[in-house]
Amino acid sequence: MSKFIQDIRGKVNSEISNEFASHLGAMVGHYVGRDRYVLIGRDTSTASQMIKKSITSGLMSTGVNVIEFSIAPLPVINYSKKFYDANVVITVSESHLREEDVNIKIISSHEIPLDQRYSSLVPWYEIGEVRYITDLESAYREAVIENAAPEIKKKNFLLVMDCAHGTGNSPLPGILDDLGCETVYIGCSKKSQQRDFPEPSPQRLSLISELVFAAGADMGVYLDNDHDRIMLISEKGDLISDQEAIAIFARAILDENPGQTIVSSVVVSHALDEVVKEYKGKLFKTSVNQVLNEIMEKKAIFGGDEPGMFVFPQFQDCFDGIYALVMMLGILAKGDYPISTLVQKVPKYYRTVFTVECEHEKKMNVLNKFKKDYESKYNVLAVDGLRVDLDDSFVLIRPSRFEPLLRVYIESKSPEKLQILIEGVKKNIEDFSI
Predict the structure, then answer these.
(1) C-beta of residue 249 within 8 angstroms of C-beta of residue 275
(2) Which of 109, 135, 161 is the last residue in one of the domains?
(3) Whether residue 102 sits in one domain with residue 147
(4) 195 pLDDT exceeds 70?
(5) Residue 414 domain-assigned?
(6) Number of domains within the chain
(7) Is the domain of 188 the same as that of 77?
């Protein structure tokens, strides 16, 4: 089954006003059809509360029934859709990057056209109903516990947890208690006016790292306010990169299910290629925006992408940071070694990401010239920008949709070759932009 996530981000009361949100809800409702169900929830921010109410009004105006989750993590809402025969989930949350922005996510089994000029509104007596859900996390919590490795309870893991003020109605504390974990929570109190943005700053990650090391914790964890994204810190206080985490999950899953398919985006490391090849699996690289959909289409056993987004289809068709944490705890418990040991087993590659200014009208010219230079000698993938796989390296150039920039990802087995590639790519972009 297909699966699509549509992201809409903008400044509250400017780009995303109540009028805009209501119209968006009506467009989604018009596509879904009257008497169907849409699940909707939000994070703890006041702006999210306001925008969610407007989206709900728009949905109701088209005859759609709304299952209202109030404050709830995205994985919990998505898991609950099967109980209501719903195929659309909407969440509203504070942006990871800017305090004045909100992020609206629409998760559906079909991509919903959001350029409709007309939405069919129903007569007053056919307006959709709202059902408020209070006990929203028990089914999800029970399912996570049921699928957790039983070895976890024997380990009594000590964790340091930062959840970006996203614990409202979250099943996470209860899940960790049930699994016998002792958890030190920071940044998980009710939202205050003075705080960091949800996007983890270096200072925030450094604080988690210091607490992990000082407490002798087994792992540090950062969960975003939606709980669909997770970052991990080793018992030594070292940040585990997204690519290392993807490789760790893939190795553990393929070890029990060799030959299966893994999906990631074009930014994925060669380290994952090596891991998948070791277990005779298949790795499918796709567009950054299509990872979730391709996981479902390819019937993959696992998929992941930056930043900290992991999908375990056997559990649910959604990026799920809570379940990813429980899966990682299971891997550690079964192996009976620290997470730093798992990191050491991931093939080592050096990696950098940077941007280069490039006018919109020149972006395709740059990509075409890179393709012409490389396609006769190397494997070139053009599903999302241009990725060139060299012998032990790769170069990926992705044009920004909104800014006059090219995003460049370069990876190599040696830091010396990485530097050579960086200098060469920058010079080529400059030459090709003329």
Answers:
(1) no
(2) 135
(3) no
(4) no
(5) yes
(6) 4
(7) no
Decide: 367 and 386 in contact? Cβ < 8 Å. Answer: yes
Q: What is the mean pLDDT of the chain?
A: 91
Same domain, 8 and 127: yes
How many Å apart are CA 195 and CA 197, to the nearest integer?
A: 7
- At 14, the pLDDT band (50, 70, 90 cuts) reads very high
Spatial neighbors of 400 by CB under 8 A, at least 6 apart, are 355, 406, 407
d(CA 20, CA 14): 9
**How buried is residue 132: exposed, middle or buried, by Cβ count under 10 Å (0-12/13-18/19+)?**
exposed
Give percent of the chain above pLDDT 90: 72
CA distance linking residue 38 with residue 58, whole number of Å: 12
Q: Which residue, chain included where needed, has tokens 């809402």?
A: 77
Question: What does the DSSP 8-state code read for residue 113?
Answer: P
Domain of 387: which CATH number?
3.30.310.50
Establish if 202 belongs to a structural domain.
Answer: yes
At 357-396, the pLDDT tens digits run 888 889 999 999 889 888 888 889 999 999 999 989 999 9
Is the pLDDT at 413 greater than 70? The verdict is: yes
- φ, ψ at 180 (rounded to 5°): 80, 20
Claim to verify: residue 311 and residue 270 sit in the same structural domain = yes
Last residue of a domain, one of 83, 103, 135: 135
Best-predicted range by mean pLDDT (180-189, 320-329, 421-430): 320-329
pTM > 0.85 = yes
Residue 194 has a pLDDT of 46
Sequence-ordered alpha helix ranges (H) in 168-320: 172-178, 202-215, 242-256, 270-278, 291-297
Cα angle 328, 184, 229 (rounded to 5 degrees) comes to 45
Q: Looking at the structure, do residues 72 and 129 belong to the same domain, yes or no?
A: yes
27 occurs within a structural domain: yes
Return d(Cα 182, Cα 217) in angstroms, integer.
Answer: 9
pLDDT band at 193 (very low <50, low <70, confident <90, very high): very low
Distance CA 51, CA 68 (A): 13
Residues 86 and 36 in one domain: yes
Note whether 222 and 314 are same-domain residues. Answer: no
Q: Which domain holds residue 302?
A: 242-320+335-344
Matching residue, tokens 């996203």: 166
For residue 117, tell me if it sits in a domain. Answer: yes
The one-letter code for the residue type at 157 is: F
Residue 61 to residue 119: CA distance in whole angstroms: 9
DSSP letter string, 39-70: EEEE-S-HHHHHHHHHHHHHHHHTT-EEEEEE
182 and 225 part of one domain: yes
